[in-house]
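DATA SHEET
Item: assembly model
Revision: 1
Owner: S.N.
Input lines:
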Amino acid sequence: MGRGLPSPPRFHETGPRMANRVNLPAFAMLAPATGLIAVFVFIPMALTIWLSLQEWSTQTGFETARFVGLRNFFDIFGSTTVGRDFKTALANTAIYTVLSVAMILPLSVAFGLLVHQKLAPGGVFLRTVLFSTYMVPMIAVALVFSKLYSPTAGPLNQILQWVGLPPSPWLSSPRTALASIVLLNVWQQVGYFTVLAVAGLTQIPAAVLEAATIDGANPLQRFAYIKLPLLGNTLLFSAVIAIINAVQVFEPVALITQGGPVDSTNVLTYHIRRVGIEFAQGGLGSAMAVALMLALVVTIAALFAFARARAGPE
Amino acid sequence: MHLFRVFARAAVGAAILLSTTALSRAAELSFLTHWAPETVAKLQAAATAYSRSHPDTKITFRAVPFGDLLTTLRASGGGPHGVTMASIYDAWLPDLVKNQLVARAPEPIAAETKSNWPASVIGAASVGGVPYGIPNEIDLYALNYNKKLFAEAGVAGPPKTWDELLSDAKKLTDKSKGQQGFGLINSWTAGVVHPFASLLVSNGGDLVVDGKPTLDTKPAKQTFELYETLIKSGYSVPSMGTADANTTGPYLDNFVSGKTGMIIMANWWESALKAGMGDKFSEIATAPIPVGPSGDKPRSISYSWMTVVNAKAPAEEQKEAWDFLDWLNGPQSGPNGASAMGDILMSMGILPSRNSDVSTFRPRLEGDPFLRGYTETLADAKGFPVLLGGQEFSESLQKTLEAMQFGQLSAAAAQQTAQGDAVQILERNAK
């Protein structure tokens, strides 16, 4: 065996010798990617967790941080103004997420079916139109919706009045402001999730649907017993992405409502920005970010567990 | 050998050229503001004029919406490469000083400032008696009312007391037209807190005394009750009072379109009203804040703005910045002995605070019927509290007032919540 020419790995070998031969080059090849992930993902996460245990102003260097243990976590879940505001923001985020996902998923499947069908022309055009909303910058969406939602001169209230319904205060009332932001989010995002649903529908074997048709299944039965179950993985993926997107909502709140009225649209990302940057309370802001991250991890894990339980043993 | 000499000479020549270039490199300063593009253009023009006598100083301007000004300053303005100068609201100063983001004014500038501005304005631009910025505008609040709506409702003139305020608001309210008598704002911190504070001081009260919140007093109780009465009687409709991130939105729309009889707003609002109303701006008049049952005379709160310099900018850059600000706010930079800054402020209907600017612009200030409602009470205005945690305190009070506006809290509960929260916030921030 010549020097510098490694022998090809013998995959039938087992034990430490094989592991050493195979893993070293593998580690070397993975190092750049894992190194970047470590630098840009794990280190910031670890730093945030470390800062959540400190009293620290975001305007000073890390050397000024003072260890306070779990005090920041007790504060954000406590009964003081800090805790009350955090819990309001957490609840708003949860409501926003549930409403968004509950509206986006069924709509994306409905639009997906509409776009995917071949009975009437225009499916591709409709898909393009739906997806185009996802490409509109949020600043434009925010500007347009803030005018659409105007309680006195807004077109939405005029439409409601034409059909005999009372006008809604939309963003001008704590009862309706968060739901109005949800509607804006659904309008913008549903096109993206429709594309995912269409991708899932194209994966369903035509033979299965044909067999069901031959067996006498009507369109509703084919949807309920074949398409929907076979869309399970797509819907799980869509749900995970929709939850993550919803939890990270920031722009419409920052651009339109600033968290008001009465904190009704003060979602966690906006609140963390307020506490961490505007008030410069970096330790508290980090504790909130960690709590948000944990809540997200638990939610996603629960979703996967639920999906596995429904799928049953393989 | 010849080649070596050529290289050596070239190297020496390059070194001399490089060092000369470094010495003559223009100072590059940046200025962060929240002003509108047309006002930034005036600021740019002033900087261009300054550059004629200081060709080595180059100044760039960056404008962000008011709602993003503090976060922009905190997120990107504090390092050595951050903005050199920033326009800030006085309530933010103590926290920015605590975080060592803003530089002390150099002694000559501090002395110049102390001798040319009113003591109260200097106080708002100082922490522990040390000036940190050069003040520019001063803002206060007055009643803005729609003369046409007043005439239609048979109301002869603006209310002078709270009883008259309620009585006039009742006459001005017409639900069939979607018209409210008195507009209360929401979703904008200063817009919510400052009118409340102005009514409170006009009722003999204060938000904070000696660093302690005083929202548990009788004048404060009466002010919370006034809000509750306005809401419960239907004279104020909360959903008509929403402001958006740019301090416009339905609140402004309803006033300019004649759906709101009267509001309490700051003097800088004039330019927004003119832009929104056009010729109908002449239907708007101003008057001092009505006096409450515990008050003795019309008062308003006042607040000021100043320009500060980044404490972490290089020393030379700081010096250049102070020199520019000294010129910008000095009597040589504007017309007829006014400062360029004063001239820019007056173009927006904003009151300048420098003594010489006030003298120069007095005829305009006294001749402007809109501003007269403000200038009449300037001498009796009380400065909005400038203390650590001021922004958090304001946002907390805003939330409580909005909760009362939307019927989530009674006046008594709102007063109790506001005082309790304020005590907590100010104590925590004072540590």
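QC remark: The first helix of chain A runs from residue 16 to 51.
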